[in-house]
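User: Please fill in residues for this 405-position structure.
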């Protein structure tokens, strides 16, 4: 006896099907194409489906909605889907894998940044975004599995023509994206969609550019001229235009030189980081995610006294609730006045160079600079308290002041 829900699919029969009430979802079966069904919901949504057992488990594969999908197309797709199922393949999983194989580099980049979460410093995140937008943006919509070794070699060479160091940085980022994709995207058999990292070709053909680490510092014989220019900065004729950031930059430059802090660590310093009773500063959000504490010398306390205000930040920006963003203009003026070329990180390197020349204990120096060496097992057991750091800090400060005065 013919099932009352088995009908010949035509526009008339499908259009005249009753709309169910409540949560029921009746299925109607096509008499012309065994295996093709139509599911009807209480919202009047009609969908073509195929129902079959796969590996002894009942599965429903949705083909498309009526009338967007025609009856003729649904019948052809049902036959094709049933053929795939007969080979023991689940079309749902096949579609999922197909979608995974279309994952673009842009999607991987977004997922990678999101996965790093709070472990990624804002400055580092901006570096990733800048490198991607400037050098990889044309691959944004390219499926990651379609990026070849040859493409990577050519792109590395093209960037190298402009900046060998930048070329290496971009490729290190790209290497990280591929490594992430290899572990993140897997098929229904728990196998990775991305099977290899094509950036390895750069090592294979020895294409990585040789990078020379910057060693620039302010020489001892230039310290006096530099210090004099910094102190004169607010009153100098180059700063007649008001308002300006000369006073803030003067104290920022001095603070970095006399503490060895990184630029962002210094510019983001808040009054809440300062303990005036203990004469110390503490930074939680550092580059290596380790809390960094330093004793404050009398000279640094003088700088802080000058900066006291109702701002949240010691080195405030154009508004009281934001830090100084870019001291580039005032830095250029110090270069012109002093005749000494320097960058802000050169001040940190100068602090390090002076500390090393004064034979400061290695572990004390690491504490002063907040350096972390995973290979140094001994260092993890040595805790240098604040008072033990006060002597080397005073020693470095006294040496600098002797040179400039």
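Assistant: Residues filled in for all 405 positions:
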């Amino acid at each position: 006896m013919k099932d009352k829900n088995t009908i010949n699919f035509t526009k008339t029969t499908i259009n005249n099907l009753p709309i169910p009430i409540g949560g029921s979802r009746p299925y109607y079966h096509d008499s012309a194409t065994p295996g093709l069904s139509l599911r009807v919901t209480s919202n009047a949504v009609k969908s073509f489906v195929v129902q079959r057992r796969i590996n002894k488990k009942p599965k429903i594969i949705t083909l498309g909605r009526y009338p967007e999908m025609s009856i003729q197309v649904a019948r052809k797709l049902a036959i094709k889907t049933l053929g795939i199922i007969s080979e023991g393949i689940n079309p749902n999983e096949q579609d999922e894998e197909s979608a995974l194989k279309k994952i673009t580099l842009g999607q991987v980049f977004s997922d990678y940044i999101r996965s790093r979460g709070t472990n990624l410093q804002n400055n580092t995140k901006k570096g990733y975004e800048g490198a991607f937008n400037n050098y990889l943006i044309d691959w944004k919509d390219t499926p990651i599995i379609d990026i070849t070794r040859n493409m990577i070699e050519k792109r590395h060479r093209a960037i190298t023509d402009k900046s060998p160091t930048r070329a290496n940085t971009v490729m290190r980022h790209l290497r990280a994206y591929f490594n992430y994709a290899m572990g993140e995207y897997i098929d229904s058999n728990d196998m990775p969609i991305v099977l290899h990292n094509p950036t390895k070709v750069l090592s294979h053909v020895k294409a990585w550019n040789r990078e020379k680490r910057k060693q620039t510092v302010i020489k001892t014989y230039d310290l006096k001229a530099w210090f004099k220019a910094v102190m004169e900065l607010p009153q100098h004729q180059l700063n007649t235009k008001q308002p300006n950031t000369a006073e803030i930059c003067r104290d920022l430059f001095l603070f970095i030189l006399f503490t060895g802090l990184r630029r962002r660590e210094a510019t983001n310093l808040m009054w809440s980081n300062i303990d005036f009773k203990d004469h110390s500063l503490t930074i939680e959000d550092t580059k290596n995610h380790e809390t960094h504490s330093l004793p404050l010398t009398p000279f640094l306390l003088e700088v802080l006294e000058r900066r006291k205000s109702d701002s949240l930040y010691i080195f405030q920006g154009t508004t009281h609730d934001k830090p100084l963003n870019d001291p580039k203009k005032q830095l250029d003026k110090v270069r012109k006045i002093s005749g000494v070329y320097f960058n802000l990180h050169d001040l940190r390197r100068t602090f390090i160079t002076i500390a090393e020349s004064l034979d400061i204990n290695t572990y004390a120096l690491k504490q002063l600079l907040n350096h972390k060496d995973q290979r140094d097992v001994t260092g993890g057991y040595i805790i240098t308290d604040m008072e033990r750091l006060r002597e080397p800090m005073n020693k470095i400060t006294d040496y600098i002041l002797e040179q400039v005065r």
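For context: Residues 105-204 form a domain with the DNA polymerase; domain 1 fold (CATH 1.10.150).
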